[in-house]
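Quick one before lunch.
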Amino acid sequence: MTGLMKGKRGLIMGVANDHSIAWGIARTLAAHGAELAFTHQGEALGRRVTPLAQSVGSDLSIPCDVEDLASVDAAFARLDEAWGGKIDFVVHAIGFSAKAELKGRYIDATTRENFTRTMVISAFSFTEIAQRAAKRMSPGGALLTLTYGGSTRVMPNYNVMGLAKAALEASVRYLANDLGPDGIRVNALSPGPVRTLAGAGIADARLMYAHQAANAPLRRTVTLDEIGGSALYLLSDLSGGVTGEIHHVDSGYNIVSMPRPDILKA
Ligand code: NAD
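Model of the nicotinamide-adenine-dinucleotide complex:
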């Protein structure tokens, strides 16, 4: 394709299968010339991720559970062996919360234990990855994470994940400010709902897809290729002047308040 990512090496974290947002991003970056390494959470997912990695020419499929810092450090050590301690970009597409708490009212559903776990995995892990990746980056390096509009507006059943995404978005701004003087950019994509494993953990997820398709200005949900295209922009030199940004890829859903008065009249 364009060769926009030619000469750039990056780590993709968060592929579970070929429906994963991280996979949509990875295949776009590979098509534009990027050299990729992948992490997977545990052996079972490794069996899915390794062949996907191979399909885009990567033999680096490395185990990494972000709850276990030793496993994060081991993953970076493995990467150093392969790439000599240098990396150009990271995609962090990791989120988790107990399914039982992504259901019903936030005030009733949320426990201290799962609140903490959700924050560590879904928000703070991005900072821990940034701490390690930035040391290996030169000016021009870029970090990208994945958030969702439930951070700023209430979505039914999204609950504690909304709070974690708010923390993640704030960390994008703090990290962007910290790493800007080194020429490293930090941004987030905020896609509309996509049918993935993580997405299916939210009660009534199908209603979120249907609501976006009915009410977003483009009157549809977004595709993995569209999310990949936005990631390509934010990770390539095309967006060289952009950092600390939360970029929506949601068919415009975030801009509307009362989208369809026609439905009420019918
Ligand atoms: P997915 O299930 O395909 O990916 C989630 C990934 O997180 C999986 O690969 C899983 O292994 C990984 N993960 C969870 N806990 C982990 C841990 N402890 N260590 C390492 N990895 C761990 O789902 P997805 O929808 O592609 O999710 C990717 C990101 O996109 C998440 O941050 C999610 O919140 C965000 N997002 C999703 C949607 C959506 O509608 N699906 C919309 C906006 C943002």
